[in-house]
Amino acid sequence: MPNITVELLSGRTMDQRREFVAAVTDAAVGILKARPEAVRIVFTEIEKTDVANGGILESDK
């Protein structure tokens, strides 16, 4: 069973999540030969105040 963990900045819509999980599941089925029902995807949301790139908080961009 593929377990896929996705970390992303908060603010994505449910439609974006649905589209993403469908595409990732399709990729796992095609590449890993997994059964669709065996593909598990977990989202972890990160607030923009909790991450920085290049010394700048995402919330400050």
In angstroms, what is the radius of gyration? 14 Å
Task: Tell me the major beta sheet.
Answer: 2 strands, parallel
| Helix-strand topology string | EHEEE
- Could you name the ranges where pLDDT drops below 50 across 5 or more consecutive residues? none
Main structural class: alpha+beta
Global shape: elongated
Instruction: Name the average pLDDT.
Output: 97
**Strand-residue fraction?**
25-35%
Keywords:
single chain, 61 residues, two-stranded parallel sheet, 31% helix, 30% strand, elongated
Quick description:
This protein has 61 residues and is of the alpha+beta class. It has one helix spanning 14-32; strands at 3-9, 40-46, 52-53, 56-57. Strands 1-2 form a two-stranded parallel sheet.
Question: What this model shows, in words?
Answer:
- The chain is an alpha+beta fold and 61 residues long.
- Helices cover 31% and strands 30% of the residues.
- The protein contains one helix and four strands.
- It has a two-stranded parallel ribbon. A two-stranded antiparallel ribbon has the order 3-4.
- It is elongated.
- The model has no long low-confidence stretch (mean pLDDT 97).
Spell out the blueprint of helices and strands.
Blueprint: E1 3-9, H1 14-32, E2 40-46, E3 52-53, E4 56-57
Parallel strand pairs: 1-2
Antiparallel strand pairs: 3-4
